[in-house]
Amino acid sequence: MSVYESTVRPLLFRLDAERAHNLTLAASELGGRSSVVRRVAQRAFTLRDPRLETTLAGIPVANPLGLAAGFDKNARAVRMLGALGFGHLEIGSVSADASDGNPKPRLFRVPQDEAIVVAYGVPNEGAEAVRERLAGPRPVPVGVNLVKTNDPAKPAAGPEVYEDYAASFSVLQDRADYVALNLSCPNSAADRDFFDDLTRIDALLARLAECDPRVPLILKLKPTRDAGVLREIVAIADGHPFVSGFAINLPSGKPDFLDLTVARDSLDRMPGAVGGPPVEAYVNAILGTLKGITGDRYTLIAAGGVMSGEAAYTKLQLGATNVQLYTGLVYHGPALVKRILAELLERMD
Ligand SMILES: Cc1cc2nc3c(=O)[nH]c(=O)nc-3n(C[C@H](O)[C@H](O)[C@H](O)COP(=O)(O)O)c2cc1C
Q1: CATH class as words, domain 3-348
Q2: How much is the CA Rg of the chain, to the nearest whole Å?
Q3: Which residue has the least CA distance to atom 22 on ligand 1?
């Protein structure tokens, strides 16, 4: 058991989940300002081995494991998170304008399944504020995840959606190693289904092409097991050479296919999407289908229930080029990164 699991987690889990998260981020931001703290963290948590080195959309990374979007939406803790051993970090989701997100409470733990239920609705400080924070050197490659501004008064409707993405893209692309487009936040009820009309993905990419894209683009898709839809999306991406890969978001709500052991009615008071092991099998099935369609032409970033080297290895075997985690960090703390990488090396051996 790590110090986090034995000592820190019990204290954090006494607090409301969002409060605990904000406290963790504030401590990370503060710790990250000290080069001594960063060095100590780096020594404790980093595992370097040339066999782990790989690329993400052509960008060299020290290992295939990254921090998923949502943990540090506003790039507050990049320096500290960069010392935790991840091969890359994904910041965001960030939108053109700041947004308060959904009403609280909007973050819940389900310890029985090591899961999180999230209904944030992409609150963030907006593209300009995040641009300021990403001004300095980046400790590891950083992707910035962009989403349409969540404004209940302006639900996704027409071309203004493309303008919203184009605005945040123009502000942030020069501060990122790659940009991910969150095409479907499961918790922005008014916007969630906009890109179900796949021609709109094509229109968005055509608009971004006018912004002179200089970094690789990853499309973070609404999850679907419909191979026909995935094939169509890949065909659209084929028409836009700056698209380098795909990722898969969480499904919205509590669909029947989630691997939950907790009684479902106990989740009634927790609105939102489920992250962690209950989505692992579903995401893995989509990943396998997507790999069958893309072959080796695209980067595939896979997240969903990665809490062990075995889970990360399974995703890599299914065709992921890079793996991300979020919920694992909440349940197992920063030592999980090194543990996963050590287990991956054992598997490789
Ligand atoms: C609390 C929370 C907030 C998240 N926020 C975002 C977000 O803002 N943008 C996004 O693209 N994905 C977001 N995600 C999805 C994660 O990036 C990731 O795809 C998903 O949680 C699966 O990984 P995990 O099982 O390791 O948590 C969020 C997930 C959680 C749990």
Answers
A1: alpha beta
A2: 19
A3: 304
